[in-house]
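DM from R.C. (forwarded with permission)

"hey, sorry to bug you on a friday — could you get me a structure for this? deadline for the figure draft is monday and I only need the backbone to look sensible"
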Amino acid sequence: MFIPLGMISFATAMLASFLVTHEPVDGEQRPLLFPFRMTGVDFGATPYYELAFMFANLSVFLFGYNYVCKYHLT
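My reply, with the result:
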């Protein structure tokens, strides 16, 4: 149970720290929780960033949900 909670907590803490420490006009690329690499695709640009960001967040959440359901509810 601690693995999915740790993953979700880490993802939330990284996003919160980014929002607290960065201004919208500082020109830095928006971070992703997990690195995505694809030739010719800028994942810092819209809509690629939003798609990759939601995929990463849903993956962490669903991994945690699956882990809890499989190992702690059976």
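R.C.: lifesaver. The chain has a mean pLDDT of 76.
me: no worries. The chain has one domain: 2-71.
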